[in-house]
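Re: that backbone. Tokens:
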């Protein structure tokens, strides 16, 4: 028994020694921050404003925060050698929270051409979104539907979510009497699957996210111009703007941004951004 006890004590001592020193895994080196205060508010931390009421870009469920914008913020912070802190920020208060120093960046599905956001600088784009059409097919095995455009929509009954950007565009195209308004996009999709409407126009990424739950709802074409979504910084934050732009370029080159978009917006194709034709002055 004494011999057994000595063996057990020796094993325990060896395990303790391993855990404390020689057998421990080498600690990963701490990331080196690529930017420091005063360019950011807190040393070692990127404080990002996201719109937590706008899934799939950002949302909160039982205390867990998730979404496309949160994934982008996390990847951006890691690229900058920083930890991530999230703060709720809607598009309406983006400029104010940047100006007051509450956040370093705002990643809240802000279109770079957003005329209301005039007091910020965009340090690059992380995704592209567009209004798109969705239609219903017979089953999940049905072939892809015929593509729709504004010109080929004809007299089809069109539904939109009230107050959405795509809804405003459809009203501008067809008049208020030409579209049916629903309080939520999910209700519009349910009307589509029930045959009460023939097509739904929706903001692409949000529409694709909701359509995942509805196997007979399919993408049927782009319904308007695509716009890039940008990371906003304070207008005078030139050092941070440069660092964020370089980090976004790196994330794009490595395929990280494409992977994040695919995670939340599959099977939505990449929207087409219309390029203005170049003209020469004689």
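Recovered sequence:
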């Amino acid at each position: 028994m004494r011999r057994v006890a000595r063996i057990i004590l020796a094993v325990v001592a060896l395990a303790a020694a391993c855990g404390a020193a020689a057998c421990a895994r080498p600690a990963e080196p701490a990331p080196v921050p690529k930017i420091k205060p005063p360019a950011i508010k807190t040393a070692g931390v990127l404080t990002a404003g996201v719109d937590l009421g706008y899934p799939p870009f950002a949302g909160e469920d039982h205390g867990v925060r998730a979404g496309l914008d949160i994934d982008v913020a996390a990847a951006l912070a890691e690229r900058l050698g920083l930890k991530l802190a999230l703060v709720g920020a809607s598009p309406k208060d983006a400029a104010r929270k940047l100006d007051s120093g509450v956040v370093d960046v705002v990643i809240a599905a802000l279109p770079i051409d957003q005329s209301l956001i005039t007091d910020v600088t965009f340090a690059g784009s992380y995704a592209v979104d567009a209004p798109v059409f969705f239609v219903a097919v017979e089953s999940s095995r049905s072939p892809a539907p015929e593509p729709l455009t504004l010109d080929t929509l004809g007299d089809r009954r069109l539904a939109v979510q009230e107050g959405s950007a795509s809804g405003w565009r459809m009203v501008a195209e067809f008049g208020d009497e030409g579209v049916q308004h629903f309080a939520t996009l999910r209700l519009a999709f349910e009307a589509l699957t029930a045959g009460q409407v023939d097509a739904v126009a929706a903001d692409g990424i949000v529409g694709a996210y909701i359509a995942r739950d509805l196997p007979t709802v399919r993408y049927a074409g782009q319904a308007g111009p695509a716009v890039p979504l940008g990371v906003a910084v304070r207008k005078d934050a030139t050092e941070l703007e440069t660092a964020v732009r370089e980090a976004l370029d790196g994330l794009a080159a490595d395929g990280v941004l494409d992977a994040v978009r695919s995670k939340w917006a599959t099977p939505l194709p990449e929207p087409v951004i219309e390029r203005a034709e170049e003209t020469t002055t004689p």
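The CA atoms of residues 70 and 243 lie 19 Å apart. Confidence is low (pLDDT under 50) at residues 1-22, 276-282.
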